[in-house]
Design goal:
By secondary structure, the chain is α/β, with parallel strands linked by helices. Helices cover 62% and strands 9% of the residues. The protein has a 6-stranded mixed sheet, with helices on both faces. Strands 2-1-4-5 form a 4-stranded antiparallel sheet, covered by helices on one side.
Length: 627
């Protein structure tokens, strides 16, 4: 029953998380904190209030929470009933009735059994709840991050995002799956235990109550400092993860430039900073634990000393003193446990705050509330209308400056120019990874900002200069272009991209694992898989960013034939540095320093002289030689 309940409520949990995200974007104070800013500049929260950010993820599992609460109250009640049974047993020692003594022992054993059963049920329900909620949080954060524009990742390292999804959610799991339950149980025992202590001996209970304020003060004072140290520690861990992720992903470059020693030092430094903040956090928590436990048990010993004198004087029975002793130990233990749990809650508050930052993170590129629809079928007309753009990481430097051009449906246009002229930026804006600062980009006459991103991107297929290969099989890497494609369609696309022969020569053919980022393949092989992926997508608009740059002459000839066939009925934009590719274009647009400086055919542009003619002599020499 509980399993089916969890499955039914899982999607509702993610919807609650999305609702919280929408609400948070309307003036939430968390929005004042920017992702990627210096952790030391953040305002430190002085409470565990950020944990309230978990409520949207817990709310869908109300029934599970209710059942866990019932088990929690039952176990707390049985724990409080146990000292009553012990008192009866102790006082019955003086009785001559063995049958009565047996009943009291039997009752105590029954209470203990019910307590064990209730504790087991509570553990199962609470732990299951924690695992389910944390899984939902991870999914919600990943769902949010995978849709963020590249501008967002200019402000935060992917390694830090991964640290938040893994390390921070592990802390939250310990809170939901254990700490909160234990905290509530100890609160109930504390309150109930004090009540029974007052009923057992008002005199001794009054003395115990005098100790409580003395214990609470160090918890509050040191707990506030612990909160800041916990957040700092998590930030340092994330920084360490980001540093490790970056260098390990570029291990070959690090080794090629013999940068291992410097990389080790950088990682060691940030890891030591993380350890230092952890050491200070542990020290603060240890000091708090020492103070709290000593004050509690010193007070309890003093009160029991008075109780023992009352027993000798005949004021109370030995069973009453034992009962009060057990309750006082339970109350003292609950306070000590709460001080420990407070530290855990402080750490979880920091982790929650960091995850909520990701969920609340604003993006510079967003879908419209009421998106328009592209005409069917998509013709593929592209228009740049007075577009100017600066990358967020490079303010003041225009990547594109008042760029205007139109590409007719089915036309093949080559974009040429020096490195950094703005050619690839055209693709970035056409895919709407960024929005132009001025002007408009249109597809079939509709501005991209009026369209839903995942809708119009289905009409585009891109082959980047540095292709991305995933750590899976060669077949699945090609199928990434169209997940519903059949095996035969995947192989047809591979043949068209001149990839079939080398793929069938692999140990397991198309099912061969190609390694992380395709490390088991050559540069040309990776490029051909990326081209096959674009061919399989069969989109009306084809974007080729120096797609044949990593191919040998024979492979380039074969791939060029496939691309030519693929381009016949499709709008194609090509960024190319080889004359053979450029000359096949219907039209050439020449970029320089973010501007369009010339447009025309190869022959016309060469005849004009200027930048293109110079590029044809210098940059395209390789293409001329090949011809």
């Amino acid at each position: 029953m509980l399993a089916s309940l969890g499955l039914r409520l899982r999607l509702r949990s993610l919807k609650w998380g999305a609702t919280a995200l929408e609400a948070s974007n309307k003036g939430s104070p968390v929005m004042a904190t920017q992702i990627g800013e210096n952790p030391e500049d953040r305002e430190k929260s002085k409470s565990v209030g950020p944990i309230a950010g978990l409520l949207p993820f817990v709310r869908p599992y109300r029934v599970l929470v209710l059942l866990a609460g019932i088990a929690l109250v039952m176990t707390a009640g049985l724990s409080l009933a146990l000292p009553l049974a012990v008192r009866r047993v102790v006082d019955s020692f003086a009785s001559e009735s063995a049958e009565l003594l047996d009943k009291y022992f039997g009752a105590a054993l029954l209470v203990a059994g019910l307590l064990a059963l209730g504790t087991g049920i509570r553990y199962y329900l609470v732990t299951r709840l924690g695992e389910r909620v944390v899984a939902d949080i991870r999914e919600a954060v990943y769902d949010r991050m995978i849709g963020m524009s590249p501008a967002f990742f200019e402000k935060i390292m992917t390694g830090e995002v991964l640290s938040r999804i893994t390390t921070d959610t592990t802390l939250i799991l310990s809170v939901i799956g254990s700490s909160v339950s234990v905290a509530l149980r100890n609160v109930l025992i504390f309150i109930g235990g004090l009540g029974f202590m007052l009923a057992t001996s008002p005199k001794m209970a009054g003395l115990v109550l005098l100790i409580v304020p003395v214990v609470i003060v160090p918890i509050l004072v040191l707990g506030r400092r612990l909160r800041g140290l916990s957040r700092e520690n998590q930030d340092k861990i994330a920084e360490s993860s980001g540093n490790a992720s970056e260098t390990l992903q570029a291990a070959q470059t690090v080794q090629a430039f013999t940068h291992e020693a410097q990389s080790r030092k950088q990682f060691r430094d940030v890891t030591e900073q993380s350890f230092d903040s952890a050491r200070r956090r542990i020290k603060t928590r240890a000091v708090m634990t020492v103070i709290v436990i000593f004050l509690i048990f010193a007070g309890v010993v003093g009160v029991l000393w008075i109780g023992a004198r009352d027993v000798r004087a005949g004021g109370i029975s030995a069973g009453t003193l034992v009962q009060f002793l057990i309750y006082s130990v339970m109350v003292a233990g609950s306070v000590a446990a709460l001080s420990e749990i407070w530290g855990e809650l402080q750490r979880a508050a920091g982790a929650t705050e960091r995850l909520v930052e990701l969920l609340h993170a604003s993006d510079s590129v967003n879908d419209p509330a009421s998106p328009k629809s592209l005409p069917t079928p998509v013709k593929g007309e592209i228009e740049f209308d007075s577009v100017s753009f600066e990358y967020p990481a490079r303010p003041g430097i225009k990547a594109l400056n008042d760029v205007s051009f139109t590409v007719a449906p089915g036309e093949t246009v080559a974009l040429v120019g020096p490195s950094g002229a703005g050619k690839t930026t055209v693709f970035q804006l056409l895919l709407r990874f960024f929005d132009p600062d001025q002007g408009a980009v249109r597809l079939d006459g509709i501005e991209l900002t009026a369209l839903q991103r995942d809708s119009f991107r289905k009409a585009l297929a891109m082959v980047p200069q540095d292709p991305v290969i995933f750590a899976t099989t060669a077949r699945e890497n090609i199928r990434f272009g169209r997940p519903d494609a059949s095996d035969a369609e995947v192989e047809d696309a591979a043949r068209a991209a001149a990839a079939h022969d080398f793929l069938t020569a692999l140990p397991e053919g198309y099912e061969s694992y190609v390694g992380e980022r395709g490390v088991m393949l050559s540069g040309g092989q990776r490029q051909r898989i990326a081209i096959a992926r674009a061919i399989l997508r069969a989109a009306p608009v084809l974007l080729l960013d120096e797609a044949t740059s990593a191919l040998d002459a024979e492979s380039e000839r074969l791939v060029q034939q496939a691309v030519d066939a693929l381009s016949r009925n499709r709008t194609t934009l090509v960024v190319a540095h080889r004359l053979a590719t450029v000359k096949k274009a219907d039209r050439i647009i020449v970029f320089d320093q973010g501007r369009v400086v010339a447009t025309g055919t190869h022959d016309a542009l060469v005849a004009e002289g200027g930048l293109y003619a110079r590029l044809a002599r210098l940059q395209f020499t390789e293409g001329l030689a090949a011809e």
